[in-house]
Specification:
By secondary structure, the chain is an alpha+beta fold. The chain has 14 helices and 19 strands. Helix 8 packs antiparallel against helix 9 and helix 13 packs antiparallel against helix 14. The two termini are about 25 Å apart.
């Protein structure tokens, strides 16, 4: 829906041309653009510029961008938050929780002080309502609830929503039954999709009423919706929020920009205070004298070359190890990619509470020795590897560099099969491939989440590889906590990487531009920074007027 009036086509073209000219001038090599003073109405309002889609429905799943996460987590509060330092779960809407002896049932006690933005108490039934809505629709994001008993069946339409393993024991007690033991589940409750919904909210979201009646969207977070339009969203502090006195901002404004470069420009000229840099947007060439910093954090995203361990020479672990040793991960990371990508020498990157390991290296001589030992000296008699590629993706330089390295060092040739996304997916699912370039993103800051894909090859793992030793290690880790659990997960990772069903290639950094006024920013590997933790320092006295209050 749009609230803007229609305009003649010739006027639209003229405006577009003028806007393009202005952008070209503003982005030219200069540093003399004036900085717009902060309006009085925005004195304590954090302004976030974004270019990718952002919606107010927590169950409409797109790629979880930081701006989307921050909007949802500003409006709603889930049961759990993850500690920025340790990654461990902390109470949010929940007050406490405990497991049954078999660790298949989690009982969560809600805070009695939880309130909706209209003053109603937050109850366990509000979480049941939300989660049933999530799994009861054809929504890609419903997979976050698959660990819950019955969730997958409900989502696939073979069971009714009321069979989902979640119930409100009383107003403040939520009981969750799992399909299998899962040690990361409490931390997974921090997912923005698992926020509660007020009894009126499903209808408001279904009818898109928040565009016309922002106050109709009742939320339980630190902020409430004040305005929604095609140009962005305005939030004000909710006076009913359970910890309202601790919120340091007066509000948040999300400003829609046509491109990532325009979002960056909005920060440069003082119209916004924060933006998340998209890939390919250079940080240099700042066109004003505004004080800004660039914060970076390692995201929990890994790109890999999955090996089909059921085909030809790839059945031999020596061949798989040779391919992993011969490839040079650093070589193609040049130019703008240098600030974005990091070579991956293990499966799990650095994360709060756990440093990543270095389990791989580049060693062409050892790679050649292993390949010869497997019966293919210099690549002789080695079949051409098939690597399906989506031609619309921008990963060609990497794939070309890596496969060229295999040819130069090992004599192994690779056929890059350029195919549309649906055909590529079908080829991988049917097993008609040798190597597949894939990516995995964690949903919680926990090594067990990324490693868990190897315990579910039927669902997530392209090589469809499984080893009983790993199954047992993961089962043991799921029943432990603290240092003992981390030790088991480390053993799991070492064992998987020794078998090389997949080759970790790249980790990815997230980049955020922050105005000097922004206080309290912290790294979060999932881009879920809580806006209620942030504040603005008044570096420049406001001089312009604006709309009164929020």
């Amino acid at each position: 829906m749009t609230t803007s009036p229609r305009i003649p086509w010739w006027m639209a073209c003229a405006m577009a041309g003028a806007g393009g000219l202005m952008l070209a001038v503003w982005l030219a090599p200069r540093q003399d653009l004036p900085v717009i003073p902060r309006p009085a109405a925005d004195r304590d309002v954090l302004r976030i510029a974004y270019a990718q889609m952002v919606v107010v429905d927590p169950h409409r799943w797109y790629f979880p961008t930081p701006a989307q996460n921050q909007l949802i987590l500003g409006l709603w509060e889930p049961l759990i938050e993850c500690d920025p330092e340790s990654g461990q779960p902390m109470p949010a809407a929940a007050e406490s929780w405990h497991w049954s002896e078999d660790r298949l049932t989690l009982t969560v006690k809600l805070r009695a002080t939880g309130r909706w933005s209209n003053g109603d108490p937050v109850t366990a039934g509000d979480f049941v309502r939300s989660w049933r809505r999530l799994v009861g629709h054809d929504m890609a994001g419903a997979i976050v609830l698959y660990p819950v008993q019955g969730a997958e069946a409900v989502n696939r339409g073979t069971a009714a929503p009321d069979t989902l393993g979640v119930e409100a024991v009383d107003a403040l007690t939520l009981r969750i039954r799992l399909a299998a033991v899962r040690s990361t589940f409490v931390a997974e409750l921090a997912d923005p999709m698992l926020v509660p919904l007020h009894v009126t909210t499903p209808a408001v979201l279904a009818e898109d009423r928040s565009w016309r009646e922002p106050a109709a969207l009742v939320t339980n977070g630190a902020f409430r919706l004040i305005r929604a339009s095609k140009d962005g969203f305005r939030l004000g502090v909710s006076r009913h929020y359970r910890n309202h006195p601790a919120v340091r901002l007066a509000g948040v404004e999300f400003i829609r920009a046509d491109t990532a470069s325009m979002a960056r420009l909005l920060v440069a000229v003082g119209r916004a205070d924060l933006t998340h840099l998209s890939p390919g947007v250079p940080p240099e060439g700042w066109p004003t004298g505004r004080a800004v910093t660039e914060a970076t954090e390692l995201s929990l995203l890994i790109s890999s070359l999955d090996l089909n361990v059921t085909r030809g020479p790839l059945r031999d672990v020596r061949v798989r190890r040779a391919l992993a040793l011969a490839v040079d991960r650093s070589e193609p990371i040049t130019g703008e990619d240098a600030g974005r990508f990091v070579p991956a020498y293990s499966w799990v990157p650095d994360m709060p509470g756990r440093a990543g390991m270095a389990l791989f290296r580049e060693d062409a001589a050892e790679a050649r020795r292993l390949l010869a030992e497997a019966g293919y000296p210099g690549g002789r008699d080695f079949p051409v590897l098939i690597l399906p590629v989506n031609p619309r993706r921008d990963n060609y330089p990497f794939l070309q560099a890596w496969t060229d390295r295999w040819f130069r060092e090992l004599g192994v040739r690779t056929y890059l099969a350029y195919e549309p996304s649906d055909k590529r997916t079908s080829r991988v699912r049917s097993g008609n491939f040798d190597v597949a370039f894939n990516g995995v993103i964690a949903t919680v800051p926990d090594a067990g989440d990324l490693l868990g894909i190897f315990a579910h090859p039927e669902r997530f793992n392209a090589p469809h590889w499984m080893n009983p030793v790993n199954t047992q290690l993961m089962a043991e880790a799921n029943r432990k906590a603290g240092a003992e659990r981390l030790e088991l997960l480390e053993a799991f990772e070492r064992h998987v990487m020794a078998e090389v069903p997949t080759i970790p290639m790249l980790f990815e950094r997230r980049r955020t531009l922050l105005a000097g006024e922004v206080e309290g920013w912290y790294a979060d590997p999932l881009g879920r920074q809580a806006l209620k933790r942030l504040a603005l320092a008044p570096l420049v006295p406001p001089t312009l007027g604006g709309e009164e209050g929020l």
